Amino acid sequence: MAVSLIFCTVPNQEVGRLIANQLVEQRAAACVKIVPGVTSVYRWQGKVEVDQECQLLIKTTAGKVAMAYQLMVQMHPYEEPEWLVLDNASGSKGYLEWITNQTMKPTK
Hints:
Blueprint (H helix, E strand, L loop, with lengths): L2 E8 L2 H13 L5 E14 L2 E15 L3 H11 L8 E3 L6 H10 L6
Antiparallel strand pairs: 1-3, 1-4, 2-3
């Protein structure tokens, strides 16, 4: 079970919910946690910026990372959104199986 954890910041909870809902609805992610109140300090276009954002923690399988990215960029307002993928995440067998099952198409 190759599971990936993805970090993506968004400007607010509303955008986070839109992206999270779409990722889970489309089975591109099993779960997306929206962590409000993060302060990001970064350099953008030669200037140091400080912003209040929300951090998305996206849990998916390695095979769904590209799909999740395509869905995210369609809704994300940033010119260059954060998209940091940590591959081969380890965890309990049952939780990793749950992530895998939630990102598969349901059988009828």
